[in-house]
Specification:
The complex is a heterodimer of chains A (391) and B (371). Chain A contains twelve helices and eight strands. By secondary structure, chain A is of the alpha+beta class. Chain A is globular, with a radius of gyration of 22 Å. The N and C termini of chain A lie far apart (46 Å). Chain B has 371 residues and is α+β, with helices and mostly antiparallel strands. The longest helix of chain B has 37 residues. The chains are: A alpha+beta (391), B alpha+beta (371).
Chain lengths: 391, 371
């Protein structure tokens, strides 16, 4: 057990930190916790920032060198995430770099790789993910969006939901049904579809926060080239499981750093309001601190248990169950420290960071595998309990 | 950066697990918990001489093997799993820890080798009233008497206080809290064994009447030593809690596979499966906290006080939840004296209270956070 970093890792940390210091402005730091807000000027800044990162070679850290990546170790990836969050650099969408890139590297054709990987690395092309549907949430293999091959094009009809970044992305990867006559897991394909076309319509979903980070994406006769199927026709379930497996085990630390910052702000707020004298609040703040440290230590353990370049196993579900519930309790605590002030919002339903956490954290136990799905994974795949009898 | 055990550490844990499974099976736990002595001297000698567990983390210059606290924590985890009845926690996590930090080299050279060899067992007497783990609660007076000192008063809830060869006593002199060593059988020392809710760990109340005592740390110098020993012990206790909880969950998952109701194993019902998943989530989170604490004890510049209160508060709640859920999953059989579930439930409560409750440690953390 060794929680120290090697001289090489410390040098990498210094390199990351120096570069961030040299390139970040206050305007960038405004976007540290905000993936979508701030209007057009903020969006423009995000686009430019991606290109700046790309030009400096900070995108594709985990990718093999053969495909233009850095082949950084898991610890280096984690260090990058930590320094990035500590520097308050803009929050970034994961879809191109973290999900599609590794998917194409694992399952794509040479043509697909040479066409799509480089623009992701340069920070020029943004992707979004078309998996969930109104009738296919936890039971993802029930997707109904259909794709039919007509000549040299797929023609796509259906609806995706909870698609973040659909307003800013140029492309979407879509899990669609290409064969309705076989069992549901076997008739699916993973398609790459351009968003800018008449057959695609993006409609924002207003969430409980009043804001719209997510969208519905409607396909009505949308088209994409026949060769833009990844991993072979009707093999989309396997590809999708691979994609979901790429959700970074190393991302926990940048998230933990952001929460640590919010926790420090909450401590100051509690003291400013004299709420720190309330024994119940003291207990809950100490408990929140414990959870926050445990998120970090469990993340370290998960990373240490992964082979170089490996994926997290089902044990990663344990970490997700813990942090998602912690974050919700944290949001509750923030509200309770604000007291009646928590109930007042700025004009135009403009929420404070604490109100935002309180409301948005409800999503944490739903997305990326609901807590119920995670408990099933832990129960069956880690503890070896018997499966539910099929109906 | 590698937050994982080495092969050697895993092997040590496996050896200790096999040893305790052999020497301290459930039947032996039942036998020992029914006695007032509360341990088997033959097994004690074996664990001291064959495995050298008593001397594991004692530096070589004092007769130990010089391993670190990660190794020692893994041993405590196995003791927690097996509920082995022995004065191991009192003598090693408390007694040896206090002596290791005392300022007088000759005292260490004289007293530690016996503890490391297991031929002498020490314990620490702090409490004078329930939950009195803070400095202000230490009132028992230490008085100069000729060239030495005498103690008068009462210490309560002393782990293995009736079987220890050496009792280290936190007592108050004119300049503050000091540490004094009293040998078993000293004049004026009365030990009263008390039956405990958790029968696997024994306690005694001790009373002192002008009892001659040897100065270990002078009044005013004792409390930092005791504080550090209590922090170390809290981390070792957290490791025990992880071990106990992990065993309780194993019982639950084993039972959930074999117990059938409504024509299927109860583990196939989400009501049970998800409860087990939540238990594992809590246990692994507690393991992260306990292992971090073990690492912090071996690290030169880690914040041990914070790591200890974090591990102790989280693992106390965790073991209590898991031990309670274990009874629930077993249903009626889990409520019987015959089934071991209650032993873990009682140990969970005893561990939660020992060295300060979860809320006590959260208050310490709140203080450290500047609140």
């Amino acid at each position: 057990m060794d929680l120290e970093y090697t001289p090489q890792e410390q040098a990498f940390r210094a390199e990351v930190r120096d570069w961030l210091t040299a390139h970040l402005t206050d305007a960038h730091r405004e976007l540290a916790d905000d993936l979508t807000g701030g209007g057009e000027a903020a969006d423009q800044l995000r686009v430019e920032w991606e290109r700046t990162l790309g030009a400096a070679g900070w995108i594709g850290l985990s990718w093999p060198k053969k495909y233009g990546g850095r082949e950084a170790s898991l610890v280096e990836q984690m260090i990058f995430g930590e320094e990035y969050a500590l520097a308050c650099a803009p929050l970034r969408p994961p879809f191109g770099e973290q999900l599609l890139g590794p998917t194409l590297i694992a399952f794509g054709t040479d043509e697909q790789r040479s066409r799509f990987l480089a623009p992701i690395l340069r920070g020029e092309v943004f992707w979004c993910q078309g998996f969930s549907e109104p009738e296919a949430g936890s039971d993802l293999a029930s997707v109904r969006t259909r794709a039919v091959l007509e000549g040299d094009h797929w023609v796509i009809d259906g609806q995706k939901v909870w698609t973040s970044q659909a307003q800013t992305a140029q492309w979407i990867f879509v899990l669609a049904r290409t064969n309705p006559d076989v069992p549901k897991h076997r008739g699916l394909s993973f398609l790459l579809v351009p968003l800018a076309q008449p057959g695609v319509e993006v409609r924002p979903i207003q969430q409980i926060t009043g804001t719209a980070e997510f969208n519905e994406v409607y396909f009505s006769g949308a088209r994409t080239n026949a060769d833009l199927v990844v991993g072979g026709v009707d093999n989309g379930w396997r590809v999708t499981m691979g994609t979901l497996g790429f959700e970074r085990g190393t991302a926990f630390l940048s998230q933990q750093v952001r929460w640590e910052r919010e926790f420090t702000e909450l401590l100051a707020e509690a003291q400013r309001r004299g709420r720190h004298e309330d024994p119940g609040i003291r207990q809950r703040l100490a408990d929140a601190y414990c959870g926050l440290q445990i998120i970090k230590y469990t993340g370290f353990r998960t990373i240490s248990g992964m082979l170089p370049g490996g994926m997290p196993g089902p044990e990663a579900s344990i970490g997700k169950l813990f942090w998602s519930q912690w974050h919700q309790r944290f949001g509750q605590l923030e509200m309770d420290i604000l007291g009646d002030d928590a109930l007042v919002v700025d004009g135009g339903y403009e929420l404070s960071q604490f109100q935002q956490t309180f409301l948005f954290s409800r999503a944490d136990t739903i997305y990326a595998g609901s807590s119920e799905v995670q408990r099933g994974i832990v129960g069956e795949r880690v503890l070896g309990l018997p499966k539910e009898p099929s109906a | 950066m590698r937050f994982t055990l080495t092969d050697e550490q895993r092997e040590l844990a496996a050896i200790v697990r096999a040893f305790l499974a052999d020497k301290s099976p459930a039947s032996a736990v039942r036998n020992q918990m029914a006695t007032s002595q509360g341990y088997d001297p033959i097994v004690w000698t074996q664990l001291a001489t064959q495995l050298n567990l008593t001397g594991l983390a004692v530096p070589e210059e004092y007769g130990g093997a010089g391993f670190g606290y990660v190794e020692l924590g893994l041993v405590f985890e196995e003791f927690g799993r097996s509920l082995t009845c022995a004065p191991f926690f009192s003598s090693i996590a408390l007694g040896a820890e206090v002596l290791l930090r005392c300022p007088d080299e000759s005292v260490k050279k004289e007293l530690l080798p016996g503890i490391a060899a297991g031929t002498s067992r020490a314990t620490l007497a702090v409490l004078e009233r329930p939950s009195g783990w803070d400095k202000g609660a230490i009132a028992l007076p230490a008085v100069r008497s000729g060239a030495g000192w005498t103690l008068s008063g009462e210490k309560r809830y002393v782990l293995d206080g009736h079987t220890a060869d050496l009792v280290l006593v936190a007592a108050r002199g004119e300049d503050g809290v000091g540490i004094f060593a009293v040998e078993a059988g000293a004049s004026g020392l009365t030990t009263r064994y008390v039956e405990t809710l958790d029968q696997t760990r024994k306690q005694a109340h001790l009373s002192f009447a002008e009892t001659p005592a040897r100065l270990i740390a002078a009044p005013g110098e004792g409390w930092p030593i005791i504080t550090r020993a209590l922090q170390t012990a809290a981390i070792m206790l957290a490791a025990e809690q992880v071990g106990g909880a992990a065993r309780a969950l194993e019982m639950s998952t084993d039972y959930a596979q074999i117990r059938h109701q409504f024509g299927r194993p109860i583990g196939s019902f989400q009501a049970i499966k998800h409860k087990c998943a939540d238990m594992l989530t809590e246990i692994e989170s507690g393991r992260s906290a306990a292992y971090y604490g073990m690492w912090a004890l071996d690290s030169a510049d880690a914040d041990v006080a914070t790591a200890a209160s974090l591990a102790k508060s989280f693992c106390s709640d965790m073991f209590m939840h898991v031990a309670a859920d274990n009874i629930q999953i077993h249903g009626g059989i889990g409520f019987t004296w015959e089934h071991p579930a209650h032993l873990y439930f009682k140990r969970a409560k005893a561990d939660e209270t020992l060295l300060g409750s979860a809320s006590y440690h959260r208050e310490l953390l709140a203080h450290k956070l500047g609140l």
